[in-house]
Prior knowledge:
The chain contains 13 helices and 12 strands. By secondary structure, the protein is an alpha+beta fold. It binds fe (ii) ion (FE2) (2 copies).
Amino acid sequence: MVKNTIAIDVLIKIIEDGGKVTTGIDVYNEQGILLLDKNVVVNIIKPLEVIKENGIVSIPFSSNTNSGVWDVNGNSIIFDKDGSFKTIEQKKHPALSGIEKRVSEIQELKKISTEKYSNAKDSIKKVLGEIKETGGDFDYNEVYSDVRDLVAFLTIEDNPFSYLTKEIFSYDDYLYNHSINVCAIGTAIVNSFNTTFSSFINSHLNTKQELNYSAVSTTDKKPEEAYKCFQKDEIEHICTGFFLHDIGKVMVKDEILNKPGKITPAEFDEIKRHSYDYGIKILEKNKLNNPFLTNTVQYHHAPLFRGQERGYPLDRAPNELPAYVKICQLSDIYDAMTSKRCYKEAFNQINVVTDIFRNYAKKDNIMQYILHSFVKSIGIYPAGSIVYLRNGQMGYVLESAGPLIIPFTDTQEKTLSDNANPLDLSEVGSDNVLQIDNRRSIKTPREVYDLLPSYLKPKKN
Ligand SMILES: [Fe+2]
Ligand SMILES: [Fe+2]
């Protein structure tokens, strides 16, 4: 295995021209956080920009069988030690071409995401176990470091756990899964919100228009002073807050938390205490007074808008809730509704997104931007999932943008013998029978394994 380095700007140019790269070596920043996994096929420039933002100008590269740099036609690009490179036409990308290549990329990302998810699960299990054992003590620095690693991965890949859908989840582990899911969804929203909102603010500051900033800040300062974009370290604390938002639930008895039937008002009052009472006490016991953490734990069930009936505690007005607390609550609602519990089935994720949008849009200034970021980052049709079309055909989602799907059954759910061409649904009329049937739930390849043609079947590990 020959190790080399390649200038990141050169790789960005190659990818901008339609090329691809797989490094074959994990890329870390100075703090030891993984920025790029050695097996990922990079075909967008975002991960490379993130690496560059970390002060890395050239990345290590190994010439093993899976790694490589390829141009838009799949030709290998070979680098010399002095940084010059040439294209070798004969040597093609070792992976399969076209659709099969994309399917294998999706499967690879699923594999990496599964590993990351399992590490995150070990981390939250450890925290909650420690709290239970010691009556409240846990090692915050260890969780913070685990979440930083997770956030680095979630920043490179857009909501990668949506690839896993719910196929690996067992609902006995609800609290662990819920903590990771809220962190993953929340991180995607914060990242997207930060970009969208900062450019929005900047454009308004440039034109000196007045805005209602009450939703952002509780101060009377001018917008220029009142608002600032979340910085990298702030995002890491915010996301740690998402990860730990329900720690107070450890103090609520399992019989109440997982009660299959209807809970009594007294039991509901006990559950409510997980946020403003038990959660805060655990943070105080560990001398953690970082506002990103305390606000999220204390207020993640507070009313999101004036007049909202449910919500607790009530000691903070909705317009005084920081944006990240609102993001935590939306992620919490989304995950709770799309998860199967001992007392309910999972709701269809598309209906959930529509419901959330309908309930919260236009309630205040900032909610619109949070919801916009939410819909953008949620990945309604994750690549690698299975959808039904209105005519009864089933389709494999190749890209969530569009979405781009491959129909693989006929209208009677019999597997097609010929490979169909991918269909970009953004180009198909909204009332066409080839649009997705949103009344039917999205499935995973595992659930419909027997119906999949061989080129779409998940590989056995
Ligand atoms: Fe909660
Ligand atoms: Fe929660």
